[in-house]
Specification:
heterodimer, A: mainly alpha, MetI-like fold, B: mainly alpha, two-stranded antiparallel sheet, globular
Chain lengths: 297, 318
């Protein structure tokens, strides 16, 4: 018996291969908000990488020229200690990005592992792990981060740890949920039938398939992590001086000079808002692309 | 139902017990003990005084005994002593509670009043310019630090109107109008952020509900759009929205911390920051525990509200 073949030429059945430019154009047209987010995120990364080139002054050197209004010499003016605001903002992008990415990854990986083990093992392990995660989520994000930061003392590393602890239970929940679904798939059963050990199944067969939701989670939490750093530093419990942290720049000291030098309040806040806005837009677009089930439309 | 309520109460109890251990351990991560911190500012430490204080605080006892003693005191409503004010902590917290509650309530009202209609409108006009505008506005709300929003609002008032908002707290019993006026801006600053979350969840559940058969039937019967959307659809879309509002309560407390600081309102959240900054650790421990209790019970209330809102959910045999 002859097998009927499809008499449609392959290149007609499949959409024509697009060049990178056209793919980009399609993404922008289909997802203008996501593209805007990607642009903002790229700007943030460029500022962080090329801070040495972009900065016009030393961001931490104080001078006698305090509270100079924005102009040709100091693009965004100077602060109460005579430091150039533009240069501080540019270097501040490094802090925001470093704390944001490091704490999100640390929290997501740690939480993700808990979620993997708890979802895969099930039973008592799952019960205990889930209760633990519940407990950690019973406090508002900022309160837990605040107490952690206060207990550990203000420093760059401790800020990262404090924020990652807050992110971990959320990551655990997301990964666990997808592990529970993947565990029931036939290919996992066949791996088990072939005699694969638990560790191998969990790491080789289950873990890679949780990647989509994991990436979505990481991008979604990134904005929150940047905001948390800003709030902690604003309260004086995050990044200590002389690091130029955007949140720290807005602290009570800036508020005191707000009427005389409004730029001290306006620009650091704009920097935080645009960075978080960009990562949030990008996160939404990634979620829609990678995980259509969460799209909600 | 009774079984379900009982089960939920047990889970809430276990969560709070775990929370208390977590907080207790966290507070002991800080280098040095409380006596070091209290004596630090004095610069001079008399060993006898110090031991006397250690005994008074009970920190010369084993950790397990310290923990059970603290928990016992907390359950009985004894919140310890504030070293900064040299007063029982409850005396310091009591006048501050209404301030935070009022702010949280006003913020919650703002977040619902702004968030729910925005979500519904956005869902109904999905893909149209108004949908994009509302989504960008809500995402902007999620992206701006609420303390910065507060600072900008104050700055704008000063610049545009030449009017400096009063930075001293007015009690509602003294002058209700002035009090409400004072809470309006901080309430809006906190509420805007929460409204963004409420808008997003309202939009996505509305989109789901609007596709259901009974909505099509309602359209087919020729019912007016306002009736279909706001009565038929929103009613069934409200369940996840209400969950979120419950969870929002926790977010709000986070927002209060920075907003009370910016607007100089003497609330509990502000006191927590003060206590941390002045390392009044016994108070921090109790305040955080108090917040945990509030959050856990807010979630519990929301869960119980479900049965009332959605008769399909039966918890008796859950």
């Amino acid at each position: 018996m002859a097998i009927r073949t499809l008499d449609v030429p392959l290149h007609d059945a499949l959409p024509e291969a697009h060049g990178w430019g056209r793919a980009l154009g399609l993404f922008i047209r289909k997802n203008p908000l996501g593209a805007a987010g990607a642009l903002l995120a790229i700007l943030l990364i460029v500022a962080a990488i090329f801070a040495d080139v972009l900065a016009t002054h030393n961001p931490i050197r104080t001078s006698s020229r305090v509270l100079v209004a924005p102009g040709s010499e100091f693009w965004l003016g100077t602060d109460n200690l005579g430091r150039d605001l533009w240069s501080r903002l540019v270097y501040g992008s490094r802090i925001s990005l470093l704390v944001g990415i490091a704490s999100t990854l640390l929290g997501a990986v740690a939480g993700g592992l808990v979620g993997l083990v708890s979802g895969y093992m099930g039973g008592k392990t799952d019960l205990v792990a889930q209760r633990l995660m519940d407990i950690m989520q019973a406090l508002p994000i900022l309160v837990l981060a605040l107490v952690m930061a206060a207990a550990l003392g203000p420093s760059l590393t401790n800020t990262i740890i404090a924020i990652s602890v807050v992110i971990a239970p959320r990551a655990a929940r997301v990964v666990r949920a997808s592990v529970l679904a993947i565990r029931e798939f036939v290919y996992v059963e066949s791996a088990r039938a072939l005699g694969a050990r638990h560790a191998r199944i969990a790491l080789r067969h289950v873990l890679p398939n949780t990647f989509g939701p994991f990436v979505v989670l990481v991008t979604a939490q990134l904005g929150g992590a940047i905001l948390a750093e800003a709030a902690l530093s604003f309260l004086g419990l995050g990044i200590p001086e002389p690091y130029p942290s955007w949140g720290r720049m807005l602290s009570i000291a800036a508020a005191e000079y707000a009427r005389k030098a409004p730029w001290l309040v306006i620009y650091p806040g704009l920097a935080i808002s645009f960075a978080v806005f960009g990562t949030n837009l990008l996160g939404d677009a990634l979620r829609d692309t990678l995980d259509p089930r969460l799209r909600g439309n | 139902m009774k079984v379900y309520v009982f089960k939920r109460l047990v889970i809430a109890g276990v969560t709070l017990l775990g929370m208390s251990i977590l907080i207790f351990v966290l507070m002991r991560l800080a280098p040095g003990n409380i006596t070091d911190i209290i004596f630090e500012s004095a610069g001079y430490v008399d060993e006898a005084d110090r031991r006397k204080l250690e005994a008074e605080l009970g920190i010369d006892k084993p950790v397990a005994i310290q923990y059970t003693r603290w928990l016992g005191e907390f359950v009985r409503g004894d919140l310890g002593k504030s070293y900064r004010y040299d007063l029982p902590a409850w005396e310091v917290i009591k006048p501050r509670l209404p301030v935070s509650l009022e702010l949280a309530f006003i913020a919650l009202v703002f977040s619902i009043v702004l968030g729910v209609p925005a979500g519904v409108i956005s869902a109904v006009s999905r893909g149209r310019p108004i949908d994009y505008v509302l989504r960008v506005l809500s995402l902007a709300g999620l992206s701006m630090p609420s303390f910065w929003l507060g600072m900008i609002v104050i700055l704008l008032l000063v610049r545009a109107l030449g009017w400096i908002p009063s930075m001293t707290y007015v009690s509602p019993f003294e002058n209700l109008g002035a009090n409400l006026f004072q809470f309006l801006l901080p309430g809006l600053a906190v509420g805007y952020r929460s409204s963004a979350l409420i808008m997003r969840i309202t939009r996505s559940t509305m989109l789901e509900v609007l596709r259901e058969d009974y909505i099509r039937t309602a359209w087919a019967k020729g019912q007016r759009q306002t009736f279909v959307v706001w009565r038929h659809a929103l009613k069934n879309a409200s369940l996840p929205v209400i969950t979120l509002i419950g969870i929002e309560f926790a977010f709000l407390i986070g927002g209060l911390i920075v907003t009370e600081t910016v607007f100089n309102l003497p609330g509990v959240a502000r006191y927590l920051v003060d206590a941390i900054q002045f390392r009044d650790y016994p108070i921090v421990q109790n305040l955080v525990m108090l917040i945990a209790v509030v959050v856990v019970f807010a979630n519990l209330t929301v869960d119980l509200l479900y049965t009332w809102l959605d008769p399909r959910i039966k918890y008796g045999n859950a």
